[in-house]
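Message: A physicist's question: would you kindly supply an amino acid chain plus fold tokens?
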Amino acid sequence: MDLSTKYLGLDLRNPLIASAGPLTSSADGVRRLAEAGVGAVVLPSLFEEQLTQEANRDSWLAAGGADSFPEALSYRPGAAYEAWPHRYLHLISQARAAAGPGVPVIASLNGVSPGGWTNYATAMEDAGAAAVELNIYYLPGDPLIPARDAEQRYTEILLAVKAAVRIPVAVKIGPYFSSPGEMAAVLDRAGADGLVLFNRFLQTDIDPETFTVSRGFRLSSPGEASLPRTWIRLLHGKVRCSLAATTGVENWADVAAYLLAGADAVMTTSALLRHGPAYAAVLVGGLASWMQRKGFVTVAGLRGLMSDEANLTAPGRGGYLSAIEQATHAFGAPGALA
């Protein structure tokens, strides 16, 4: 049974990737995930705001030193005050050692505006990252921002990072575009080595008792997988870059379904947080058992079998009408659910 796959041009021993989260924030966590059998790990994000804050702090220290003593120009805070961007580079090298040679370590860079912070990708590469996942967490709050201006920002950030590094760059995006397929094609043409579908944006809610707006973050559930799975089905074979699935993975069947849709790799954080790092072995083992039962010898042999490229019915108007008719027949009178 061959579970190996390629993602971003990297050779993975299997398609399961531990995505960014608390379990990948330490070398020990990465080691436990690697021992449990993941194919790769994505480290937690380093944020644009953190890099900007550090740059401002360094500028302030340098400016203050210029007015006092020459020795102050070379002063930098010691290890006790070491900022997260510096510690992040240490995490990359430590995670590489903990993961071992067969498990690539992918760094994550999170930002929303074109600027010098993207150059930090070079430091990630120098520290040993096998690739960079570019998490563009951008929801325009101004209703007057033109859609094209918002979308152009993704391309500008991608081009800046691609110009800074030689390693592969994946772009993690959300589904909230007027045409997600076109956006995927635009990023593909701009040089993205992979697309991660989809980012789960923080959504607020209102408590009518306390009159407060909540900003809590919830783990994903299997019901959320249908949206990214639909778009992976549609994009498989239509873009050059790799496709990674994320969101809604709870068991091996979710992994298998994503692969059948056309994913090159399947990421999860929520399932590993619920059940622990060792659960990766359950997911990989379940996938292998299912493949053997269904007669698949390789992951490549099953990838995309249920994609739109395989000439299966696409979720257009016909599929929508059919679904409404089935639901109406099962649950209510004609037109009740339209």
Observations:
- The chain has one domain: 5-306.
- DSSP finds eleven helices and twelve strands in the chain.
